[in-house]
Amino acid sequence: MAAAGARTRLVRLKEDLAELDGLVIPGGESTTMTMLMQRMGLYDSVRQAVRDGLPTLGTCAGMILLAERISDGLPDQPGFGILDIAVRRNGYGRQVDSFEADLELAGDERPFPGVFIRAPIVEDTGSTEVIARHEGDPVGVRQGSVMALAFHPELSGDLRLHEEFVHLVEGRAS
Ligand code: GLN
Questions:
Q1: Domain that includes residue 158, residue range
Q2: 104, 134, 154, 164: which is the annotated catalytic residue?
Q3: Quick one: which atom of ligand 1 is closest to the CA of 62?
Q4: For the purposes of burial, counting CB atoms within 10 Å of the CB of 160, is it exposed (0-12), middle (13-18) or buried (19 or more)?
């Protein structure tokens, strides 16, 4: 995000959410992230901040956390229930754990290098706008001020999606 022109800070405590213009929920392991956020008292505050319109980018596990419908999660994996999508955790994982592929971005002719690591499959895009596809299948969506990607744009060195998010944040902040 810094490379795309944003000042950043880590959110470890709910106090760290104050005065943020945007939030990135990164990849990792959605079950562990949920548990840690609950333990640190962050879970409800983060969910509420996103619900209240804080521009948010979720990647991979972050996408799972934002989704309204999660398959193959843990039985008690709640999810924020914010984005009108259905995801299957590790949906690509059973076929191939990790892979790279050229993606099609909406409104951009140039392919985007997508890095997928035990990525979720988006099974239903609901009312969201699809912003990235892999062989025709949706791998990136946007709904209002929330963007979610099944892959890891930070590992590709291509800043276009980070810049798009920074623009979104600037648009909301101004
Ligand atoms: N498979 C992970 C999960 O279920 C996501 C993987 C990732 O973020 N790269 O949370």
A1: 20-173
A2: 154
A3: 8
A4: middle
Please report whether residue 108 resides in a domain.
Answer: yes
pLDDT of 76 reads: 76
Q: How many domains does the chain have?
A: 1
Instruction: Output the pTM of the full model.
Output: 0.95
Q: pLDDT band for position 174 (50/70/90)?
A: low
Residue 67 lies in a domain: yes
In a domain, 4, yes or no: no
Task: Please answer whether residues 57 and 165 qualify as being in contact, where contact means their C-beta atoms are separated by less than 8 angstroms.
Answer: yes
Catalytic residue (choose from 15, 19, 29, 60): 60
From the CA of 152, give the closest atom in ligand 1: 9
Mean pLDDT computed over 6-14: 94
**CB-based contacts of 84, cutoff 8 Å, min separation 6:** 68, 125, 126, 127, 128, 143
60 noted as active-site residue: yes
Does the Cβ of 30 fall within 6 Å of ligand 1? yes
Q: What CATH number did the domain enclosing 115 receive?
A: 3.40.50.880
